[in-house]
Amino acid sequence: MSAEKLATRVTSIRVSPSTAAAQKVRDLKAEGREILNLTVGEPDFDTPHAIKTAGVKAIAEGDTKYTPVNGTIALRKAIQHDFKTRLDIDCDLDRICVGGGAKQILFVAMMATVEAGTEVIVPAPYWVSYPDMVVANGGTPVIVHCDESSRFKLTPEALEAAITPRTRWVILNSPSNPTGAAYTAEELRALGEVIKRHRDVLVMCDEIYDRIWFADFPAQSIVSGMPELADQALVVNGVSKSYAMTGWRIGYAVGPKFLIDAINKLQSQMSSCPSSISQAAAAAALTGPQDSVEETVTVYRARRDRAHELINAIPGLSCLLPDGAFYLYPNCAGVIGKKTPAGKTIETDLDFSLYLLEEAGVASVHGGAYGLEPYFRISTATSMEIIEAACAKIADAVAKLS
Ligand code: PMP
Asked: Boundaries of each Aminotransferase class I/classII large domain copy (predicted)?
C-alpha cells in the first residue's frame, strides 16, 4: 500500500503548525544558527519533586496494572474535589473521565458526537488542533472570527448567528491559546443563555490553562454559575500545563453521563486506560500542596508583563494584556506592506514571522495558523533573558523595515 490509499481522515488534516514551527527551529539549530525560540507550548519548569515521587512510589508499590477505563477512584475523587472547590461544579464520579491528555479527551469527545453533516463552532483565533479534530472526525468546523475589540472573545450575538440545526458543539477555550484572553462570569452567563436555548448544542470548555491565571476576576467555568447547563457542557482540564506534566499525559473532563459513557466506551477500545503511574502522580498533583503552581504563576506573570511592555514599545506592533496562559498574540498590522532590507514586501503575518526567523533569529508562530490575521504568537514559557533578547531583536528587525 502507498500513501494515496490512506484514509481521508488523515489526508484531510494537517500536522499541527506549532509542531511544524518547532521542527523548523530544530533544523535551523542543527545548521548552527542561534535561534531564540518563542514557539514553545509547554512549561519550561520541571515537574515538582513531590509529584515525581508519587510516580516513583506507584512503580515501587506495583501500581503498574490496568486501571478502570475512566481512571482510578483516587484520581477521580481528586478531580471531583478540585472541580467543586475551585469552580463550584458538582459532579458524581461517574460523570468524570480521564484520558491520555486533554487533547485525547477533546478528540474522543468529538469522535463520540461528530460525523458527516455535523458542525462545530470554533471561535478564531483558535488552538490549532480544534478544526483538524473536527475534520478528522468527518465534521465541518464553522469558524467565527472574534475581533481584538472584543478581546478575541465570542459574543452571544455571534454565537446565536452561527448556530444551525446541524450544530453539535461550540468550543470555548479560556484562558485562550493563543491570545491569553479569559471569559468573565458575565460573559459566560450571556453565552450560556444562548446555549440553553439550543438543547442539542453542547459546549466544550477547554480550561487547560485556568490555573495560570493573572486576571483580577476569578477563573470560572460556564457551569460554575449555571448548574442547569451541566447536561450540555464538557469541562476539560488536565495536569500538563499547571503542574509542568506535559510528558505524563493525563487530562480529564466532567460532562453529562451519556457523553462520559460514550467517551469511556471509545477509550475502552482505544487505550484501555491511561497510565496507572501517571494517574497516581496526577492525583498527588491535585491533592498536594499548590505552592509550585503559585510560584510558576508568579514567574509567568512577570514574563507576561515584561513581554507585553517590550512588544508595545515597538512601533507597528501592539498587544493586549493576557488574562492567563503563557502566550501573547501581538497585532502586526503596522508592518504589513513594508519592505525588508532584501526588498521583499511583508504581505502576510507568515511573511513577517519568517522575516523574524531569518533576520532576527526569533521563532514565533504566525497568526494565520490560529485563524486570525495579521498577528503572531509568542510564548513566554522560556526564560526572561530569552524573552528580553528576542524582543530586542524583533525591535531591530522591525526598525529595518521601510
Ligand atoms: N488545549 C489547549 C488550548 C492546549 O494549548 C493544549 C496543549 N498545547 C491542550 C489542550 C492539550 O493539553 P494536553 O497536554 O493535556 O493534551
From this structure: 34-394
